[in-house]
């Protein structure tokens, strides 16, 4: 047939990476090249270890799964190469961002039609998973389910219209239908009855239930051999080594079946895999989770004409219905034993099951599946056409959001020792004379949580997080119910209780830990400290302390919404802030005090949060009005951010100090404007956040970089004639927090 498609871009994991999606992508790409040699196929590989895989020549671009900018660059690559269609392999866990949201940043930019094969379709998605699926549905010309069950879920759960859904089965190699005895001598199991399970090994595979079934099987058929083929899943190896496999081996010994079990602990290529499958009398897939929409291993063995015993996860329940295989309950070793024995006894039934499976599997052979995919590609291209396509997706300056630098943590790591983050530095050298403070360790703790959400894993930063929560815990004085702030390098506290603002900032950091971190130890300790520290807030008089605590309470509610104690204090602090604004502000001075000092934007930030999450329109409007005024008074005539100077600040009815401009003021503006943008969707706030962030990068009164790209640190201030070259803890953390919040925002766009 004559094809309009000349070039296809495949996006997904790719061999030699060892995972099911990598194999699927490679098999589909190879099958299309073989069936349609006139089509050029190029691959954009999503990598968990960038630069570590020796990809074949068809891989033209490598995406770092955790780096959103690499997705954007990949989109440019695809557009520049003028591909006719994009074939995406989707599973939430293979892409970076919340629920794999990074992939949307790529898809929004490409001009060719997108066809997405869904390897996971959930019946009960999380909020973030649903958001990603909605994004895919809007962008893609077609989504492919490998099962009818998946098709049903796409329509009923995600409201995807039927015309956007194609059902195409999982492809399989063309394995000949032969007697299992033909291959058994290859593995030294001639004369044996062979059970086979294969695939990457992990606890959800349920292998232990087969091992528990074996004693009963062997008592009747002592010539039974159970082959477990496959390496341990790489993610599991990274987390706990080979503990799971060793536990399985111990279980085999405990059950007395060690002579009847072969663990083949490696990833095998297709030619050898065919031999293993060929030697099996029965294939067993004892998975534990119903919500598995497809299984490549099940497809392979069914299509090769194997008698199959399986638990009733979605794909198996559909493929093996009407006697095409045997289904057993989840985790039921006795049922597995019973059905294995039944099939060993009834050779006629077993052979009939094999023939039926093999004949039905012919439609699943890769050559046939490739043809169906190409038809889908052609339809998508014709439907969408090329009307809106551009050869190059270059953007004018006004269209570009912002180019963010990459993270560097050299200076922060330099400023951290076994106690915590040090306060000050002489140039880039930690100044031991100034010791430590709770303020900076609280800021560092917040940063560690944001980096966790960005999926940025740096061992030194993860250790820093533990030291910072330990510091904050040590800082708490139970007799005063307050946090101490200043600790000397000789580990002596300088006060029994720190300032109200430092107390509020500690509460903010602890609320962030409770609401957002996945580190259970940090989360629990933070929760316990919050319970002890919160009562003191009611006695505070500082609006900033109220605001810091209020932000911390809102962070806490990300996970524990409904806590009545925290909710009562939230309303109390919101009332206090709105009241002080009403008493002190005017049309010319919409502010809660007679002076604008430092980290000012955190006060309206807290009100915006309360307005958004408690439907307090009064708080929201006060917060937005005050924040807009702060933006206005901190914007130079030339249009760049000019922070209120700490050399006098800004007294009511007096002239505003222009210097010394502090990084913490720029950070508080970045953070508050991002929240205003999320709440309102008004581009004004995005541009204000961008303006404040660019202050670090040289868009300021001196035209000088405050951020140091060589160290990842940040200089301490902008003076009237120079940049303060010291890179202390507060300033470095202010920049890194600003960068983290900007990157999280860009992920969500």
- Shape assignment: elongated
**Rg:** 30 Å
The beta-strand count equals: 25
The largest sheet, given as strand count, sense and whether it forms a barrel, is: 7 strands, parallel
Fold topology:
Blueprint: E1 7-12, H1 20-35, E2 40-47, E3 59-64, H2 68-80, E4 85-90, H3 102-107, E5 114-118, H4 127-139, E6 142-145, H5 148-156, E7 165-167, H6 181-184, E8 193-198, H7 207-220, E9 224-229, H8 234-240, H9 243-254, E10 261-264, H10 270-279, E11 282-285, H11 296-303, E12 307-310, H12 314-319, E13 326-327, H13 333-345, H14 347-360, H15 366-384, H16 410-414, E14 425-426, E15 429-430, E16 436-437, H17 438-453, H18 459-475, E17 476-477, E18 482-483, E19 486-487, H19 500-516, H20 520-533, H21 543-560, H22 564-584, E20 595-596, H23 602-614, H24 617-633, E21 650-651, H25 663-680, H26 683-696, E22 707-708, E23 713-714, E24 717-718, E25 723-724, H27 729-748
Parallel strand pairs: 1-2, 1-4, 2-3, 4-5, 5-6, 6-7, 8-9, 8-11, 9-10, 11-12, 12-13
Antiparallel strand pairs: 14-15, 16-19, 17-18, 20-21, 22-23, 24-25
Helix pairs in contact: 1-15, 7-13, 17-18, 17-19, 17-27, 18-20, 19-20, 19-21, 21-22, 21-23, 22-23, 23-24, 23-25, 24-25, 25-26, 25-27, 26-27
């Amino acid at each position: 047939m004559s094809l309009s498609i000349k070039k296809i871009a495949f996006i997904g994991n790719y061999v030699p990476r060892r995972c099911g999606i990598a194999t699927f992508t490679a098999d589909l790409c190879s099958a299309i090249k073989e069936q349609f040699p006139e089509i050029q196929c190029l691959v954009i590989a999503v990598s968990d270890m960038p630069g570590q895989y020796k990809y074949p020549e068809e891989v033209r671009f490598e995406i770092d799964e955790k780096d959103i900018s690499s997705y954007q660059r990949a989109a440019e690559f695809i557009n520049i190469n003028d591909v006719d269609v994009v074939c995406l392999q989707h599973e939430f866990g293979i892409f970076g961002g919340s629920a794999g949201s990074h992939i949307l940043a790529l898809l929004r930019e490409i001009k060719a039609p997108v066809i997405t094969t869904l390897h996971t379709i959930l019946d009960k998605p999380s909020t973030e998973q649903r958001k990603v699926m909605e994004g895919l549905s809007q962008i893609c010309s077609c989504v492919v389910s490998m099962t009818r069950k998946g098709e049903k879920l796409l329509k009923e759960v995600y409201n995807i219209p039927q015309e956007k859904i194609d059902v195409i089965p999982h492809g399989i190699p063309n394995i000949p239908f032969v007697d299992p005895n033909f291959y058994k001598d290859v593995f030294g199991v001639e004369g044996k009855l062979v059970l086979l399970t294969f695939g990457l090994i992990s606890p959800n595979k349920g292998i232990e239930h087969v091992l528990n079934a074996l004693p009963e099987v062997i008592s009747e058929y002592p010539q039974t051999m159970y082959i477990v083929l496959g390496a341990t899943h790489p993610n599991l190896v990274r987390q706990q080594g080979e503990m799971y496999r060793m536990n399985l081996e111990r279980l085999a010994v405990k059950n007395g079946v060690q002579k009847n079990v072969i663990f083949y602990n490696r990833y095998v290529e297709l030619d050898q895999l065919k031999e293993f499958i060929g030697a099996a009398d029965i294939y067993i897939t004892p998975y534990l989770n119903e919500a598995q929409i497809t299984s490549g291993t099940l497809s392979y063995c069914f299509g090769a004409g194997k008698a199959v015993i399986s638990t009733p996860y979605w794909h198996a329940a559909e493929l093996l219905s009407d006697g095409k295989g045997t289904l057993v309950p989840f985790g039921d070793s006795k049922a597995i034993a019973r059905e294995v024995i039944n099939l060993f006894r009834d050779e006629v039934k077993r052979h009939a099951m094999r023939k039926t499976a093999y004949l039905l599997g012919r439609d699943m052979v890769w050559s046939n599946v490739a043809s169906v995919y190409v038809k889908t590609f052609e339809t998508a291209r014709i439907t969408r056409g090329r009307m809106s396509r551009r050869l190059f997706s270059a953007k004018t300056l006004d269209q570009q959001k912002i180019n963010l630098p990459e993270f560097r943590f050299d200076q922060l790591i330099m400023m951290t020792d076994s106690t915590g983050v040090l306060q000050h530095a002489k140039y880039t050298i930690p100044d031991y004379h100034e010791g430590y403070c709770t303020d900076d360790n609280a800021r560092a703790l917040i940063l560690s949580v944001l980096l966790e959400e960005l999926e940025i894993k740096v061992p030194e930063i993860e250790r820093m997080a533990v030291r910072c929560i330990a510091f904050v815990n040590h800082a708490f004085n139970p007799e005063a119910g307050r946090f101490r702030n200043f600790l000397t390098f000789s580990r002596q506290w300088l006060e029994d209780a720190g300032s109200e603002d430092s107390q509020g900032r500690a509460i903010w950091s602890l609320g962030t830990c409770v609401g957002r971190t996945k580190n259970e130890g940090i989360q629990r300790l933070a929760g316990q400290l919050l319970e002890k520290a919160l009562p003191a807030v009611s006695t505070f008089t500082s609006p900033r302390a109220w605001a810091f605590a209020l932000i911390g309470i809102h962070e806490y509610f990300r996970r524990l919404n409904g806590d009545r104690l925290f909710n009562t204090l939230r309303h109390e602090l919101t009332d206090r802030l709105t009241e002080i604004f009403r008493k002190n502000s005017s049309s010319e001075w919409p502010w809660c005090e007679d002076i604008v000092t430092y980290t000012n934007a955190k006060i309206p930030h807290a009100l915006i949060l309360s307005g958004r999450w408690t439907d307090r329109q009064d708080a929201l409007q006060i917060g937005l009005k005050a924040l807009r005024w702060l933006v206005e008074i901190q914007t130079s005539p030339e249009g760049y951010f000019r922070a209120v100077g700490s050399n006098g600040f800004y007294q009511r009815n007096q002239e505003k100090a222009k210097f010394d401009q502090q990084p913490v003021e720029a950070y508080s503006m970045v953070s508050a404007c991002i929240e205003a943008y999320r709440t309102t969707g008004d581009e004004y706030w995005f541009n204000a956040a961008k303006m404040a962030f660019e202050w670090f990068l040289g868009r300021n009164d001196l035209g000088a970089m405050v951020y140091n790209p060589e160290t990842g640190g940040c200089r301490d201030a902008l003076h009237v004639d120079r940049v303060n070259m010291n890179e202390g803890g507060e300033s470095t953390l202010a920049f890194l927090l600003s960068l983290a919040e900007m990157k999280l925002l860009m992920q969500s766009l």
